[in-house]
């Protein structure tokens, strides 16, 4: 094999794949079979990090960047003048195995531009996964992209070899999708997602009866939405997320701040900043929904369709609901503790354990790792020294902002001044 | 009079010392490695001879008394090799035996919290090393990696690599502590190279001819996944601290 030719293809096809932000390798605990190669780590492993701080866990490439679609936000769109390339099935297999053996990666994340038809493309993706599993005895992580519109038979087969399947929604609203990706229909995205969901449910039920049932997409499904490309509100995005979490049992929804790649007048112009802080606030909201017991309508609703950029969404919620506070750290239920700004789930767990032994004071909380600069306005503990003044929402907010420093400070100070 | 126990620096040696401390009721004793010991004529020192059966007894008992999780935290904290850690561990153990309840979750006790924090640090580096080991294929057909971790994490990562790379022969060598582990397709053995016979993986002549091209592919892949408009070096260095760059092929200048 010619390393130079492979290198050239790899540069083109990795560059085109990088806008897919998911790089998770977690959620699967596939075992090493018959002294073969590899296994999956339940918690996932990031083998390196790019200079923008994102995890590199999988070999993330496109099989090809030839595409029959012309989605405005996508770098491999038909009308874009870029270099095109395509890997052979065996080339992807060799790269994966050789990277894996050197402990560079957890496995493969294979996506593709759509050439000829959805099924033709999906078939190639499945062929790579099948070869890795059956010929190379590879038990590492495989993430395949579900091609919108792919047939049920192919999606079924994909789940037998892959750990995770994902199909990117990209644009949260129907209106936006029509504007930016007129070739695509929402139903085409939902079809493969629905098939995989049903198979996962079926296999999980069978597994309960018969332990030897083979695994089917053990790390589940995920999707991605682009943030800031179609003028959508945070509410549009998070309600869409909530819909997918509830109806399609997704493991993850990823949010990807739009990186300007074209001069299309329908999109933010080249050179406009990537909305990284907004992306961050959306992830925080996502976490509050999945782990902290919040309902989406508590955080975003008709009155508050967008998140507060300057403070985190939990603090923002707490300031709107000061009547729930202060709560007593030594007696409150853990669900209530999880709602206190500055308390993460780790701290909640440690508090619940530690208070069995003695009543906790500020010093204990600090050592446990609570962010007291935020939490102290909302808590009482075993100490007389708590916030007794009746502070207004604005006072608390500005005091907290004064006592925190953020790398984004310049960013939101500028943004705020727009409204003043 | 204050008592000092000198032990051989191994975990088994430490457990044997704990056995002796309890037997001799020297609960205020200090446990030190010879290399950290400064002779003092006013204290009573004793040399502990590592005894595997005593060590096993203490280990089994700790698993019951401090729970499995607590015992594992003690082992991880021990592997941190932080100066004086033996005494924190001893206080933890004495506390564990002095109460009825399981204490490994009593984060309001300073020793328990400290042990859990250090164990967390060691656990983090274990996880990092599972990620940052970079094998190089040698002419002899085995995969060789060098590491220089802050803590002595080789005993903690052995199982991970054995389970994962079951069909290839490999060596992971800790250059700082001058020992490594070797998997020969059946079992994992500790290896120590003599200084004179040790050849570093940096020596290109030892490598298989496909090795350098694959390193280049990997580095190019790494470079092309970067999104320049999102560059954030502070975050990058937080995830991949500079002290680990030396052995990461993707962080080498081209």
TrEMBL record, chain A:
Its cofactor is [4Fe-4S] cluster. InterPro entries: Aldolase_TIM (IPR013785), DNA_rSAM_put (IPR023874), Endo/Exo/Phosphatase_dom_1 (IPR051675), rSAM (IPR007197), rSAM_sf (IPR058240), RuvA_2-like (IPR010994). Keywords: Iron, Iron-sulfur, Metal-binding, S-adenosyl-L-methionine. The keyword Manganese does not apply. One of its GO terms (molecular function) is metal ion binding. Residues 62-199 form the Radical SAM core domain. It comes from the Bacteria. This is Putative DNA modification/repair radical SAM protein.
UniProtKB/TrEMBL annotation, chain B:
InterPro entries: DNA_repair_put (IPR023875), DUF4130 (IPR025404). NCBIfam families: SAM_7_link_chp. It comes from the Bacteria. This is DUF4130 domain-containing protein. It comes from Spongiivirga citrea. Residues 85-250 form the DUF4130 domain. Pfam families: DUF4130 (PF13566).
């Amino acid at each position: 094999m010619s390393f130079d030719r492979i290198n050239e293809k790899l540069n083109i096809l990795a560059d085109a794949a990088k806008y897919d932000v998911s790089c998770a390798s977690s959620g699967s605990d596939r075992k090493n079979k018959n002294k073969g190669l590899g296994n999956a780590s339940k918690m996932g492993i990031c083998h390196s990090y790019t200079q923008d701080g994102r995890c590199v866990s999988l070999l993330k490439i496109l099989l090809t960047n030839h595409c029959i679609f012309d989605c405005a936000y996508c770098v491999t769109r038909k009308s874009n003048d870029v270099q095109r390339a395509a890997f052979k099935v065996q080339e992807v297999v060799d790269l994966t195995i050789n990277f894996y053996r050197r402990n560079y990666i957890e496995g493969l994340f294979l996506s593709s531009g759509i050439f000829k038809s959805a099924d033709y493309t999906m078939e190639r993706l499945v062929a790579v996964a099948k070869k890795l599993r059956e010929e190379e005895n590879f038990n590492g992580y495989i993430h395949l992209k579900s091609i919108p519109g792919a047939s049920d038979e192919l999606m079924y087969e994909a789940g037998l070899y892959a750990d995770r399947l994902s199909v990117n929604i990209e644009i949260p609203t129907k209106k936006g999708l029509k504007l930016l990706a007129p070739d695509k229909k929402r139903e085409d995205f939902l079809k493969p997602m629905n098939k995989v969901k049903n198979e996962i449910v079926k296999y999980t039920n069978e597994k309960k009866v018969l332990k030897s049932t083979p695994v089917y997409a053990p790390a589940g499904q995920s999707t991605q939405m682009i943030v800031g490309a179609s003028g959508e509100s945070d509410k549009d995005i998070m309600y869409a997320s909530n819909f997918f979490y509830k109806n399609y049992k997704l493991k993850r929804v990823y949010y990807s701040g739009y990186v300007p790649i074209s001069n299309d007048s329908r999109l933010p112009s080249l050179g406009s900043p990537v909305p990284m802080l907004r992306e961050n606030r959306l992830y925080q909201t996502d976490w509050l929904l999945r782990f902290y017991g919040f309902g989406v309508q508590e955080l975003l609703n008709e009155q508050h369709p967008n998140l507060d950029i300057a403070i985190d969404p939990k603090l923002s919620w707490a300031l709107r609901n000061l009547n729930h506070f202060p709560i007593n750290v030594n007696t409150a239920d853990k669900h209530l503790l999880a709602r206190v700004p500055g308390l993460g789930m780790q701290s909640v767990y440690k508090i619940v354990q530690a208070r069995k032994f003695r009543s906790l004071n500020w010093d204990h909380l600090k050592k446990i790792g609570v962010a007291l600069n935020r939490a102290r306005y909302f808590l009482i503990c075993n100490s007389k020294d708590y916030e007794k003044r009746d502070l207004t929402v604005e006072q608390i907010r500005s005091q907290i902002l004064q006592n925190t420093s953020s790398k984004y400070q310049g960013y939101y100070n500028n943004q705020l001044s727009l409204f003043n | 009079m204050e008592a000092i126990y000198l032990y051989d620096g191994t975990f088994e040696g430490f457990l044997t010392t704990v056995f002796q401390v309890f037997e001799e009721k020297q609960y205020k004793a200090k446990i030190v490695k010879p290399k950290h010991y400064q002779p003092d004529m006013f204290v009573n020192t004793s040399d502990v001879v590592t005894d595997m059966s005593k060590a096993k007894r203490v280990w089994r008992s700790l698993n019951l008394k401090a729970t499995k999780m607590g015992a594992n935290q003690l082992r991880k904290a021990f592997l941190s090799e932080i100066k004086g850690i033996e005494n924190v561990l001893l206080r933890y153990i004495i506390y564990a035996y002095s109460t009825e309840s399981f204490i490994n979750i009593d984060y309001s006790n300073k020793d328990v919290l400290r042990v859990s924090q250090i164990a967390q640090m060691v656990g983090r580096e274990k996880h990092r090393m599972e990620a940052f080991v970079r094998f190089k294929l040698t002419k002899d057909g085995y995969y060789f990696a060098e590491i220089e971790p802050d803590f002595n994490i080789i005993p903690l990562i052995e199982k991970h690599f054995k389970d994962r790379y079951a069909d290839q022969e490999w060596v992971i060598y800790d250059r700082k502590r001058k020992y490594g582990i070797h998997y020969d397709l059946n079992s994992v053995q500790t290896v120590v190279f003599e200084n004179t016979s040790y050849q570093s993986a940096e020596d290109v002549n030892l490598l298989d001819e496909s090795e350098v091209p694959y390193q280049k592919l990997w580095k190019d892949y790494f470079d092309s996944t970067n999104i320049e408009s999102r560059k954030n070096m502070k975050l990058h260095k937080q995830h991949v601290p500079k002290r680990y760059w030396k052995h990461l092929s993707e962080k080498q200048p081209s």
